[in-house]
Hints:
Blueprint: H1 6-16, H2 18-21, H3 26-29, H4 31-42, E1 46-47, H5 48-55, H6 59-71, E2 75-82, E3 85-92, H7 94-116
Antiparallel strand pairs: 1-3, 2-3
Helix pairs in contact: 1-7
Amino acid sequence: MRAPDTGKTMHRLVARGGAEDSKFDRLVYERVRLGIMSALAVNEPLTFNELKGLFEVSDGNLSAHARKLEEAGYIACEKSFAGRRPKSEYRLTAAGRQALNRYLDHIEAVIKATRRS
């Protein structure tokens, strides 16, 4: 018995989506960045410490991921002070919401194609 060629199935799946839909956004794909964007999609705004607690990552790790999302225009950060302590609040931008929705659409299409196989 020969295993199905999922590579061809995936190629057809991606080719059907059109130029914009077929782009898989690797920036969103990474676990912590996807988590940040997903959390912000349902809980705006969130502070740096709230995000850190959600994903149990180090300050440096979260900071690096947040910076990449900011540079892409997917999230916005507002810095202020609470007393004498710095406070960073993050929000998902319109571009970030679109990127997250494109990613979710892509994953849903992969799931549907896989279930049909």
